[in-house]
Amino acid sequence: MGYCPNTPEEIREMLAVIGAESVEDLFSPIPQELRAKSFELPAGMSEFELMGIMREKARVGGTDIVPFIGGGIYDHIIPAAVDHLAGRAEFYTAYTPYQPECSQGTLQALYEYQSAICRLTGLEASNASLYDGGTAVAEAALMALRVTGRHNIVLDASVNPLHREIVCGYLASLSAGVVEVAPAGCASDLERLMGSISSETAAVVVQNPNFFGTVADFTALAAKAHEQGALLIEACYPVALGMVKSPGEMGADIAVGEGQSLGNTLSFGGPYFGFIAARKRFIRNLPGRIVGETVDKDGRRGYVLTLQAREQHIKRHKATSNICSNQSLCALRGMIFAAALGKQGFADLATLNYDKSQYAQGLLSAIKGVSVLNPGASFNEFTLALPKKASEVVTRLLDAGVAAGVPLGSYYPGMENAIVVTVTEKRTKAEIDALAALLEEALWN
Amino acid sequence: MSMYFTKEHEWVKVDGNQATVGISEHAAHELGDITFVELPQMGKVVKQFETLAGIESVKAASDIYSPVSGKVVQVNDKLEDAPELVNESAQDAGWICKLETADLAELGALMDVAAYAEYLKGLE
After folding, report:
1. Mutation site for B-interface testing, chosen from A315, A316, A317, A320 by largest number of B Cβ within 10 Å
2. Which residues touch A41 (CB under 8 Å, ≥6 apart)?
3. What digits encode the pLDDT tens for the residues A341-357?
4. Domain extent for A306
5. Interface contact flag, B63 A318, Cβ < 8 Å
6. pLDDT, tens digit, for every residue of A219-262?
7. Nearest-neighbour CA in chain A from B117: distance (Å)
8. Residue A1 pLDDT greater than 60, yes or no
9. Is A315 on the interface with B (CB under 8 A)?
C-alpha cells in the first residue's frame, strides 16, 4: 500500500470543496473531550537512527536468551528453504484463494499442507488450517458437539491450561458442559477419564505429550469413548509425531494442535497456525476451508475449495463454524518445513529432541534436591520438582540469560515448586551444561 | 395412503403411526443436482415445521423442515452414497427418513396433492 501524504496545497483544496475553513474546523463537530489531546509521537528520525532503536528493542525483548521454555510453543530449527519459498511474491502477497482460475499455486500448496497434516496425524481429512492451537482445540470440541448431538465435553486437565481456558470460553455461551478431570501426578488419570464418559459425552479431550511433557497411549481411552458413542479428541505436538504413536493409530477421531513448531518462528507469540484433522466420515463437520483435488474440463488435475456449503458465506449462521479464513502463510511455512524434512527427517528430528532432553533430564536430576516428576515416557519436555519456589528460580536464571522453563504454580495450585523444562534440537550440550550449573548455583549458593 | 405437502415443499405419507418424509419433485427440480443429504440422527425428536435435515445441491444449501412432529426411527442411508436418488425419485425412492408420529391432526395444517398443485401454480 502506498503512503501518500497530503501537501498543504492539497489540504487547502479539499477543505475548500467541502466548505471547511481549516482541519480544526473539519473536526469541530467532535466534542473536545472525545478528541485526542496528543499522539505523543516523537520527532521524526532518519532510517538509520530508527533501525538502531528497533534493533535495541528487539534485543531487550529476549532474542539473546537461551530458551528451555516450551509449553506449547517451541524453538526449532527452520530450514532456509522455508523463508525463501514462503517469501516468494506469488505466495507472500496472495490472499484467500476464492478463485481457482487464478490461485492454483496457493490452492495446491494448501492441498499439500492438508496431505502432510493427514500423514502426521494418521487421520484422513484435514482442513486448510485454523488460527492457532488453542482455538483448534475449541473448534474440535464444537465439532464433536455437532457430530454427536450431545452437550458434554470431558477435558483432561493435563491439556495446556491456556487451551483449556479457550475451550471453556467457547463453550460458556452454549448449552454445553465441561467436566475437567485432574491429572494423577504428571499423567492423565485414565481411569477417572474413562469413568467420566457417559451417554451424554460428546468427546474426551486429551493432549500428547501433555502439558507436563508426559507421553501416553490413549488407545484404551479411545475404545472406551467409542463404546459410549463419544469421540476422542487428541491435541498433539507435530514434531513429537516423528516418534510417538499418532492420534490415528490410537483411534482418535479428531487431532488438533499448534502448528508453530512446523517452520514458524517464535515471534513473541504469533502469528501461528492451528491444525485440525479428522476421520473421513466427519469431513462435513470440519470447520473452515478445505481444498480438494479435481479435474478441469480437459481432464487436467486442478485444485479448488471444496465442501463450501459448510461455510459462512453459504450457510450464514448455520455454518459449521465462524471460521471464514485460515492462516495460509503460516500453514504454507508448515508445509514447506514438512516437505523439506520428509518422513526420515521427522524421525531424525524427533530422536535428536528426545536424546538431548534425556541428557538434560539426567544432568538436572543429579542436582541435590531436584527430581523428575515424570521419569517415564516423555518426548522433549519433563517436569522437575525444585527445593525452592520455581518462579523465583526462573527469574534469577533469566538475569543470567537463560529461560529455565515454565513454572507450574500459576496453572496448577500446589505445584509452586515444579517447572516444565523443554530441550529442543537447537540446545547445545554447552547450553544444557550451563543450565545445570546455573540451576545448581541458584538453588544452593 | 395419501401424500401431504408443506409450503416449504416437503411431503409426508402416513401409514399407521409411521410417517415417511421427503422433498417434493418440484423442490428437487428447483434445487438442481443434489450433492449431499444431511440425514437426521436416529432417535431425533422434532416438532412440526422444525428443522429435520439438510440438503445441498450445486446451487444451494437448504434446511428440510419436518411436516409432522415425531421421532426419527429410520433414515434412507442409500442417500449417503447416492444423493442423486432425490433428483431421480423425489417422492418415492428418494425419501429422507421415517418418523414415529402420533398426532394425525397435524396433517390438517398441510396441503393434499390437489391443493399443493394449486399452490405451485400460484408460485409461477
Report:
1. A315
2. none
3. 999 999 999 999 999 99
4. 80-338
5. yes
6. 999 999 999 999 999 999 999 999 999 999 999 999 999 999 99
7. 30
8. no
9. yes
Residue contacts between A and B (CB atoms, under 8 Å): 11
> In the β-sheet with A231-236, what is the strand arrangement from edge to edge?
A125-126, A274-278, A254-258, A231-236, A201-208, A152-156, A177-181
Choose the final residue of a domain: A319, A338, A357.
A338
Give chain A's domain count: 2
- The CA distance from A176 to the nearest CA of chain B, in Å, is 18
A314–B contact, CB cutoff 8 A? yes
Q: Are B38 and A318 an interchain contact pair (Cβ–Cβ within 8 Å)? A: no
- DSSP lists the bridge partners of residue B23 as B10
Q: Which residue of B has its CA nearest to A315?
A: B61
- Name the pTM for this structure: 0.85
Q: Which residue, chain included where needed, has cell 434412507?
A: B76
In tens, the pLDDT along A430-442 reads: 999 999 999 999 9
Q: Which ipTM did the prediction report?
A: 0.72
- A317 plus A353 within the same structural domain: no
Instruction: Search chain B and give the residue with CA nearest A282.
Output: B38
**What type of residue is A98?**
Y
Put simply, the answer to whether B36 touches A314 (Cβ < 8 Å) is: no
The residue extents of the domains of chain B are 3-103
Among the ranges A103-107, B59-63, B116-120, which has the highest mean pLDDT value? B116-120
Are residues B41 and A314, on separate chains, in Cβ contact within 8 Å? no
CA-nearest residue to B56 within chain A is A309
pLDDT confidence band for A142 (50 / 70 / 90): very high
Q: What is the CATH number of domain B3-103?
A: 2.40.50.100
Report the chain A residue with the minimal C-alpha distance to residue B59.
A309
Alpha-carbon distances of A200 from A24, A153, A228, A352, B65, rounded to whole Å: 63, 9, 9, 43, 26
B-side interface with A, Cβ within 8 Å? 35-36, 38, 41, 44, 56, 61, 63
Contacts of A357-365 with CB under 8 Å at 24 or more apart are A357/A381, A357/A382, A357/A422, A357/A423, A359/A423, A359/A429, A359/A432, A360/A68, A360/A421, A360/A423, A360/A427, A360/A432, A360/A435, A360/A436, A363/A432, A363/A433, A363/A436, A364/A421, A364/A435, A364/A436, A364/A439
